[in-house]
Amino acid sequence: MWWTPGTPDQRVPGTLTRVEDGWRLDLIGALSTAPDGEDRLHLVPPQTIWGACQGVLYTLMECYLRDVVNSRGSGVPEDVSDQWLMTWRVGSVVRGGTVTEATPFRSASFEITGLPAWWPPSGLRGSQARSGVYERPDDVTVPLQDGEITIGVRGMPHHGRRVRSLRERVVVWVEKPAGFTLEDLEKETVEPLRALVAIGVDEPVSVFNLSVDPLSPVPDGRPSHSFEVDPHDGAEPEELPSILPAPLPLSPALVDVPSFIPAWLEVARRCSVPLDAVEPRQRSGSLQLQFLDVVNAAETLHRSLHPEPAEYPFAERVRQALRDFGGFNSEERRAVRDAVKFTETSLEDRLFALAEGLGSEVCEWLFNGNVRPWAYVTARLRNALRTPNAMTSGAASR
């Protein structure tokens, strides 16, 4: 059963499914956030949805309404209240309790694929392997202004009928007595550390086994317990191989790495966009080329959807100037005029017209009302990246 925090008495059944790009919620019924009236294209802002399944509470955050279907007229009786079918795209799932964006937490722990290959786990690998009782290495504690981060190794023993084995896991713990929200945790700690590991191993990595502990007891007075964030539904993410090229681009074995991490967190918070650009990803081509492909496609789309101007005064002025100057035949003058005609409508104007074609409500929601500045910056970036020097630099940086 699922409901919104503002209407806990209005609950509808539905299923939560993990899909390739996150999570999907399919409801048999309508939540109170459904738009009124028959126009189902009205934009619904992102919602927080609470739910319960087999005694476990869930929180679905950053939920975007994807589809609403009226089942009336499809063999469903008129007096049935569940006449609406809703589909939501869910950004994040919290299992274990009902929280909001402002709920504070005191601690968190998580793992990162690639971290065991980057952070020295113990003497179980390589030339340091030894027999006897397992002794994990000491934890590394990184003090912060408002708390601390601890990176340590934990052994996960497995006892079979004939074989006993132990698998090491490298875990990150975050402690902040004043508390933090899930958004604070992601922006200030999780994403910067994930990017640092990705740069260190030069491979894309992901975060898993993220759990958080509430700052205060749950509303009914019971002791708080850990909440799982985006729990995996089966096998954990595949780890990177332990054998990586040596030396690593950025190794924890280097001097002053523990003191480097707080400085890195501060830089990552201030420079999130450049950091995203340099982080290794499974991309086809550089970020610059992907940007050019998208903007060029938008320009082509505008040319297909909008008729070209009936007159080109500037192109005709150029053609007349060439004629007056002399030295060019009529075919050459027409070629120059056609080339100028191609650029008479600026890329900025084309992008602006495309965005405005989505409607004022979409522009306000998607561009926060800043359509013209977006078109201006995008056009100038595209034109700058099309220069030979910019493309050579982009290829070199890749």
Describe this structure in words.
It contains eleven helices and 13 strands. Helix content is 34%, strand content 28%. It has helices at residues 115-118, 182-201, 257-270, 272-278, 287-305, 313-325, 330-344, 347-356, 360-367, 371-385, 388-397, and strands at 2-4, 7-12, 14-19, 22-28, 47-53, 56-70, 84-95, 105-112, 140-144, 147-159, 164-180, 207-214, 227-229. Strands 1, 2, 3, 4, 5, 6, 7, 8, 9, 10, 11, 12 and 13 form a 13-stranded antiparallel sheet that branches. α5 packs across α10 and α6 packs antiparallel against α7 (330-344). The chain is α+β, with helices and mostly antiparallel strands and 398 residues long. β3 (14-19) and β4 (22-28) form a beta hairpin.
Helix-strand topology string: EEEEEEEEHEEEHEEHHHHHHHHH
Number of strands: 13
The proportion of strand residues reads 25-35%
Please state the structural category.
Answer: alpha+beta
Shape: extended
Radius of gyration: 28 Å
Q: Percentage of helical residues? A: 25-40%
Low-pLDDT stretches are 37-41, 73-77, 391-398
- Characterize the largest beta sheet: strand count, sense, and whether it forms a barrel: 13 strands, antiparallel
Q: State the distance separating the first and last CA atoms.
A: 48 Å
**Number of H/I helices:** 11
Report the average pLDDT across residues: 79
